[in-house]
Amino acid sequence: MPASTLDCAQRCIDVLSAAEDAPHSPLYTVMTMANTLESSRQAWVIRGQSRSRRVGHWPSWFARNTVEKPLLYLHSAQSSAQLSALADVTQQRGILCNDIENQPSPWPKGAQPSLPLWLATHPRCTPYDPASGEEARAIVLAGLHTLYVDGEPGFYYLALHDQQSAAVLSAQDREDALKGMYPIKRDHTGDVRLLGAGRALEDVLHAARLLKQDWDITAQVWSCPSYTRLAREAAAAERWNRLHPTAPKRSCHLRECLAANAAPVIAVTGYPQAIVDQLAGYVDARFVALGAGSVQAGAPSRYWIVVMALRALADEGRIDLQQVETAMARYPLK
Question: Could you say which residues form the signal peptide (predicted)?
Fold first, then answer.
């Protein structure tokens, strides 16, 4: 990485770190960071619309410069074709932030089903779905450091929603969020473990309260900004262990987080279920994946999360199956 690029990146990190604000939504936070970077003149901040597949419709003037600067691209891509073209015009570099979730759409999270699958399978893409502005800030700062200070190849992707959040993360939370998941409350266990990403985390938190209030069942809640990063690291560790059968086994962040007990794990996303299905082979406990289309057309509601948690506990023999039937009659499952 050229020294001038590294210098620009470090100045971006410094100016953003000095401008930390109160917790907000991921969209508000990234927009504020974009304004700060634009004023610093140390990064390219592109505000584009990705509604057309024609690359010529998007600004590419930054590519004519001989020195690479950090790139923050704000866009609204709803299909994998649009996102693929956008990644190509940026030479698969930079931090791409998509606000399509905040616009009217018949698709879950505003994205056609092919888009999250493209993100999950693109080897140069590190995708995130932050639940809070604090998570989004940590991810953007990490992207600047990884891509432009360390000089790693590829690009970061953030799905941005505009739902207010009061979350405040510790230094450990921020570090773990970048790896893919962190607990909402540390040193807290539960009868069931609930995982949520992006806007779906709010329903997961509501489901945890309902489980305690209505069924006296405790839930440990985890925020998972990147199911894909968790799955990739777990797959890499498993492959290494397979190729080195006599060496000490490598672990992964997912298994380390969930190793405390054997309580059932319910993983929730607003994207199609396939995104959380990636974790199924690496969770050493009963695992239930819930996404758009799993039990209802959109993201699963807090009530369905409760029912699925109860069913997982019933399947383990920890509660009576009658409680599941009672819950299905009690809640508005639509």
Answer: none
Q: Which two tokens stand for residue 3?
A: 């020294």
Split at pLDDT 50, 70, 90, the class of 66 is low
Tell me the three-class secondary structure of 227-250, residue by residue.
HHHHHHHHHHHHHHHHHCCCCCCC
> Could you tell me if 121 and 13 are in contact, meaning their C-beta atoms sit under 8 angstroms apart?
no
Q: Which CATH number goes with the domain that contains 227? A: 3.40.50.920
Do 116 and 202 lie in one domain? The reply is: no
In the block, residue with structure tokens 């380390």: 256
Residue 308 counted as domain residue? yes
Q: Are 186 and 278 in contact (CB under 8 A)?
A: no
The structure tokens 């510790």 sit at: 170
Please choose, from the candidates 194, 199, 159, 156, the residue with its C-alpha nearest in 3D space to the C-alpha of residue 178: 156
- CA–CA separation, 96 and 119 (whole Å): 12
pTM of the model: 0.93
Q: Strand, helix or coil at 194? A: strand
